[in-house]
Predict the 3D structure of the following.
Amino acid sequence: MKNIILLSFIFFLMSCYDDKGNYDYREMAEIKIENLPETLEILGGIEHIVAQPKVTSSLEGEIKDGNPNFEFSYKLEKKGGSQLYDEAWVDLNPSKSLKLDTLISIPSGNYVVWFAVKDKRSSIEYSTTFDVKVTSSTYEGWLVLCNEGEEKRVRMDMISVISADRIEPAYDLLSLLGLPDLKKATKIGFYPAPVQTGDVIYLMSEEGTYKLDQNTFETSDMYNIYTTDFIVAPSDPDENIIEYMPLANMGPPTARAIFAVSNKGNVYALVTAAGAAFEMPINTSVRGKSPEYRVAPYVGISMVRYPGNSTAALFYDIDNKRFVGWSFKSPTTNDINQILTPVPNPEVGKLFDFKTGMDLVYMEGTSYSNGLVYAILQNASGKRVIYGINMSGAGFVQESIYENLNAPDFDKATVFAFHSQFPYMFYGVENKVYLHNLGTNITYEMTNIGLSANEEVTMLKFNLYHNNYWWPEPTEEFMARQYELMVGTYDNRVSGVDGGKLGFYKVDGANNSITKRVEYSGFARIKDVRYRERR
């Protein structure tokens, strides 16, 4: 028995001796990380986060990009441990490369970036940190709403006014700020509310409308307009708000009422003196009754701003092909503020029937002639006419009619803009922009825009300021920009989804011409532009 035990012990020692050579007793390397900043200060959505660290191993020397034994990561998180976009951190470097050069749209604030070096052979990581301070690039400037790619993904770009001497474009600002994946952008809703409550910005699309946080531009499902501004959301899940328009008050810089129009042809009114939310559709003759017809997605109001000069709004009934109107009454009789009424023909001075029998192509309010609304209508044979309806005072005054227009391809035009200082209509057809003088019935092609056959006009617009109370007093140059023609174009020769350009053109009222002041590029397909005004 003793011999058996001794023999077993000898075999155990032999097995231990044979196994000793199977272990790797390599020395552990020391990793040194250099050349990272202590703090980076950037403009969110405009300036890149850039890092070029030097990584050295005590055993292998400098570790360069492309070394198959190592990978690198950069993870950004808010200081203080709070979550960012419902995540603990954001991966800045999915490619795992050593150098970092990335553009990210995040709210202003203080962040920390964790830089890590991983030895893939041992799975051991070495890390260090640096701070990132983000300053807002969304405080003031032109909001540029776009449709990106064939799917028409909703995208918000911006031409940010950082100072009088620095204006920078910023792109895809909302991709990491909580905006749901929406398609088919329609318009930007903007209401410069009083200072104590801040301005209101709505991004509208065929798939949903969302309010943006006035400081960070963050949004979420909780910022859906039906959650923030409606007493009861529409029962149709496919009904979405695609137009949002405030009617200026006759007193301080607030809105007398705000109107919202949906893709289902319903219109809602929020009367600020009577409540803080939209009620039931007002395209009816009795408050709260089911809608009786559908309206076009336009609101015709006087664009004479605060203090406003009108108590009325104009809509178009697309089922009965007629104009219908809204008129403000004392909030004590709020029933009348929650209905629309067919606009009657004038007893004298009739220029046309308010029940037109035609299709509405486009409608736009201006400050021309103290508050003229232009409506483009098309009859069954495809001929287009323009009606001018003055909305100052109680509104609905027939002022002008333009028939037999000497306007090439006007029947094919898809985008329009009416000037508020001159009787000018601009319209776009494919890659051409025309100026039509309504007073002389003469049309001029704006050849100096110079678009190629592969480019197209996607938007024409004048950005009339809502605010009329500025401090400090703005310059004449700044105030004049609201009368510049904004031309959105898209160059289909550009690879990817960034072929959009936005040009600003001064309008010459004496010579029927325009002159380019400046142009910015790198946008997606521009749908709407709205200047974010700040007092």
Notes: The chain has three helices and 35 strands. The radius of gyration is 31 Å. Helices lie at 2-19, 225-228, 476-480. The chain has a mean pLDDT of 90.
